[in-house]
Specification:
The protein contains 9 helices and 17 strands. The protein has 368 residues and is α/β, with parallel strands linked by helices. The N and C termini lie far apart (58 Å).
Length: 368
């Protein structure tokens, strides 16, 4: 038994999770590798070759690394629990006129819980992943996530949903490193091909990034049901017909198939009337939004009017705001207007580099 403890490492077969496992093994932890199968392309109807975290090649890469370095490796089939929650939520959100973030849902409700359950069964004190973030403990005793050193790779945004019992046992070794350093480590560990391996930014169960095609396959008769709704302007004037409200997202400009003589953007979606609102770029500006399903991390709540930097999407640099208590969560009031707030996406609140908490954007105060 290692003096440092036993850790269950989620291994996808990619560079980040592999280096995480090898790094912890080298540091003297007793490592157990586990690869989670979340989705099965063989039964999904897609014609594209499996990519990302759920293909046989990745499973074999993860297992080979474990075997070569002398620690055990398991494959965990969580397709049923993943599908029931993450994929159903993905479909339901689009049908509700919102834009979901399945990676957040998976981390929050499936992946970490599945890891912790197996960690307990295998007597592992810790779980570890290859995410770029840093876990700290506040003087108030609470565990919280901070941005990783490499801000271009930072993934703190997608981890806001992790609760205290999960954070207290999670290790994120890569948070202190830059991606270039991790590639060099992979090379030094003897995996030059892994060091050059391309990264996948696709949703794991939508390998061709065609979420519209995925929705059509998952929901019988969807296309016929929603085809022919109205494009309208902000005053309600009909501008033309669209292909169905679930196939559009807030801020979308391309692929609208409507000629109005100027660039227009999707500024609102109303599923009840199958209406998609189009407007100019400035019509995307919002000063406030409501966020619910909150998970507080650094503190167990906020004082009304607390200042925070709020990120409304993964690549957003963040905007200064104040947070105010609301019956269903918080109202976020931005110092300056923010463009393209999309209900269904995550809003994550930062104090400097530290995540205060986060939640799901429900609606905007003004407009749709």
């Amino acid at each position: 038994m290692s003096r440092k403890g036993k850790v269950l490492v989620a291994m996808s077969g990619g560079i980040d999770s592999t280096v995480t496992a090898l790094m912890l093994n080298q540091e003297g932890y007793e490592v157990v590798g586990i690869t989670m199968k979340t989705w099965d392309y063989a039964t999904s109807g897609t014609s594209k070759k499996e990519t990302g975290c759920c293909n046989l090649e990745s499973f074999n890469d993860a297992r080979m690394a474990a075997v070569q370095h002398g620690f055990p490796h398991f494959v965990l089939d969580i397709r049923e629990e993943f599908g029931d929650f993450v994929i159903d939520n993905f479909v339901e959100e689009y049908l509700a006129g919102r834009t979901p973030n399945p990676c957040v849902m998976c981390n929050t409700h499936i992946k970490w819980r599945a890891l912790l359950k197996r960690a307990d069964a295998l007597d592992c004190e810790f779980i570890a992943t290859g995410h770029y973030g840093i876990i700290n403990q506040h003087t108030n005793g609470r565990y919280f996530i901070s941005k990783g050193v490499d801000e271009t790779k930072d993934q703190s945004y997608v981890l806001w949903g992790l609760q205290q019992d999960l954070l207290s046992r999670t290790m994120l070794p890569l948070g202190q490193y830059r991606k270039t350093e991790i590639r060099q480590m992979a090379h030094d560990f003897g995996y030059p091909e892994l060091a050059k391996k391309a990264e996948s930014y696709e949703i794991c169960f939508v390998p061709d990034n065609d979420y519209r095609g995925f929705l059509k396959k998952k929901v019988d008769g969807l296309e016929d049901r929603v085809m022919g709704g109205a494009f309208v302007d902000k005053h309600g004037k009909i501008l033309g017909k669209h292909k169905g409200y679930p196939f559009y997202t807030i801020g979308q400009r391309k692929g609208l198939d409507i000629a109005l003589g100027r660039p227009v953007f999707v500024t609102g979606i109303d599923p009840d009337t199958n209406t998609v609102v189009l407007g100019d770029e400035e019509d995307l500006n919002r000063s406030e939004t409501v966020v619910s399903r909150i998970n507080w991390i650094k503190y167990d709540g906020i004082t009304d009017g607390m200042e925070a930097t709020t990120k409304i999407r993964y690549k957003d640099k963040g905007s200064l705001s104040t947070l105010h208590h609301h019956e269903n969560g918080v109202t976020v009031k931005f110092f300056d207007d923010v463009k393209g707030i999309a209900p269904g996406q995550s809003a994550v609140f930062y104090e400097g580099n530290d995540v205060i908490g986060g939640g799901i954007i429900q609606r905007n105060i003004t407009g749709y």
